[in-house]
Specification:
Number of strands: 11
Structural class: alpha+beta
Number of helices: 1
Order of helices and strands: EEEEHEEEEEEE
Distance between the termini: 129 Å
CATH architecture of the largest domain: Sandwich
Largest sheet: 4 strands, antiparallel
Bound molecules: zinc ion
Radius of gyration: 47 Å
């Protein structure tokens, strides 16, 4: 034997409690209190339901904000770590640069030292010279001194050669050489060798 339990709802007009049988749910009946026709609906406790949903939504939003904030924080932390490590690498490089002595004079074995080479264009024409200085480090005269230069393009590739000649270089004297550069794409030059007769 099945006992049909009465359900309870509220009048849509006066709001007072109405009891009705389960099979009449959804039907319209006159309210026993105010006499107005009302749908027989299960009373959903709105006061406890709606705030719970709102709370759930709020919690979801808060969780998302925390999650997104966390992600942004992580990305920022990673970037910061990258910057820091880059800075560390830089300072390490600087420290190394301070420790490592300047490159030894490669021409010391042949008794010369050289300055950096620059390319100079004369004001009146398009003629370019590679200029620099070669010093005789010895106490003897040097005869038939030749400087050989390697011409480099914008990418540091060798694209040609230049040379200059000095018949006599006195002891400890400095020779300001000027080597004609015929390669128009040359942007820099390095001394490849120094020889003497
Ligand atoms: Zn009513």
């Amino acid at each position: 034997m099945i006992k049909i339990k009465n359900l309870s709802g509220a009048c849509q007009h006066c709001g007072r409690a109405i009891e009705f049988r389960a099979e009449t749910a959804g039907m319209t009946a006159d309210c026993p209190h105010c006499g107005q026709p009302t749908e027989l609906l299960l009373a959903l406790p709105p006061d406890s339901n709606t705030p719970a949903r709102t709370k759930a939504i709020l919690f979801t939003i808060v969780a998302l904000v925390i999650l997104i904030g966390g992600l942004i924080g992580t990305v920022l932390a990673l970037k910061r770590a990258e910057r820091l490590s880059a800075r560390h690498r830089e300072s390490a490089a600087k420290a190394n640069a301070q420790i490592v002595p300047p490159p030894a004079n490669p021409f010391a074995p042949v008794g010369f030292s050289v300055s950096p080479v620059t390319l100079e264009q004369s004001q009146s024409s398009a003629i370019v010279h590679a200029v620099g200085k070669v010093r005789n480090l010895t106490n003897r005269q040097r005869f038939g001194v030749r400087v050989q230069l390697e011409l480099l393009d914008r990418n540091g590739r060798k694209i040609g050669e230049a040379k200059d000649y000095q018949a006599l270089l006195e002891p400890k004297a400095e020779w300001p050489f000027r080597a004609l550069v015929v390669e128009p794409k040359a942007v820099s030059a390095i001394i490849r060798g120094i020889t003497e007769d």
